[in-house]
Amino acid sequence: MEIINKSIAVREDKNLLIITHLSQYLDFVTGFGGLVVPLVIWLTTKDRVVGMEEHGKSAVNFQLSLILYVIIGIPGIFLFGLGIFLLLFAGILSLVMPAVNAIKASNGESPSYFGTIRFIS
User: Fold this and answer.
1) How far is CA 36 from its chain centroid?
2) What is the maximum span of the chain, computed from C-alpha positions, in angstroms?
3) How far is it, in rounded angstroms, from Cα 26 to Cα 13?
4) Per-residue pLDDT tens digits of the chain, which is 121 residues long
5) How far apart are CA 71 and CA 51, in angstroms?
6) Per-residue CA distances from 1 to 4, 6, 86, 105 (Å)
7) Which of 9, 30, 94, 105 matches a 20 to 30 Å C-alpha distance to 67?
8) What is the C-alpha to C-alpha distance for residues 24 and 53, in angstroms, rounded to an integer?
9) Quick one: DSSP state of residue 30?
10) pTM of the full predicted structure?
11) Reduced to 3 DSSP states, what percent helix, strand and coil does the chain have, rounded to the nearest 5?
């Protein structure tokens, strides 16, 4: 059995980190791209881009949290209309947080998504 050692060059690519965060806005265009695109970017470049492990996990965890909020919020509407507040909360977060974290990525800071449940640690 032959073992091949592939040396992976690690590079710093802030633009790709920014794209990872801003690609979450694809949810508003396609309905599902906001989870798929950051997940693919994270899985394919987590070993080759500095900071991608942290930023990619944060973006994917945030999208999974938003999906969970919507899944809980829709039936919650029938419970005295309280699900509306959860859906509004998720909607506001989905508009604000990707832009905030894209700016943080451009400044070299760690991402911090408010209201995120850590599914992937």
Assistant:
1) 10
2) 65
3) 21
4) 444 556 667 889 999 999 999 999 999 998 888 999 999 999 999 999 999 999 999 999 999 999 999 999 999 999 878 899 999 999 999 999 999 999 999 999 999 999 899 999 8
5) 31
6) 10, 16, 55, 42
7) 105
8) 17
9) T
10) 0.89
11) 65, 0, 35
- Cβ-based neighbour number of residue 14 at 10 Å: 16
| Dist. CA 20–CA 92, nearest whole Å | 19
- Other Cβ atoms closer than 10 A to 47: 10
Rounded to 5°, the CA angle 73-116-47 comes to 135
Residue type, 5: N
Please list, in sequence order, all residues whose beta carbon lies within 8 angstroms of the beta carbon of residue 30, skipping any fewer than 6 positions away.
none
